[in-house]
Task: structure prediction
Amino acid sequence: MTRAGETGRGDLRRQIIQILPRLRRFCLALARRPDVADDLCQATVERALARADQFVPGSKLDSWMYKIAQNIWIDEGRRQQTRGTEVDVDHAYDMVGSDGLKVVEGRSDLARAREALASLPEEQRVLITLVVLDGMSYKDAAETLAIPMGTVMSRIARARRAIDKHVNGEPAQ
Result:
């Protein structure tokens, strides 16, 4: 590999490091569980580095990375359908009961907002993460997910209404 190629790969690595927090948030929106999201994020970075030659310079790295994560998530979902459901023993133990801290936290608006976000259908949850949490434009989100912009707008509107209803008990005006 030439020196210029090594420099380009180093630049790509630095750029990937810069978007890691947003990528993890996106993976968490897909997976809903931090441990699974971390695995998805790691697999995404590994695949991006392995296929760095496929990245088109001048295009948006975050969109490319989000697409890789989404494809890995879809592929993993298909694999799980084939092999059946697995239950993590530690996670199952946490679901058995609740402690006082979780009860108190469950009363806060933030906890209700988190619950509302987690209860959204995947396509709405992903868009809320991209547009609201990461500040991506509707146009960029549409390009990233390869869906029409009208679909982005309607899913965001439905997601916001659902979150508002969950948090406040009434639909947004």
Summary: The radius of gyration is 18 Å. The chain has two domains: 1-96, 98-168.
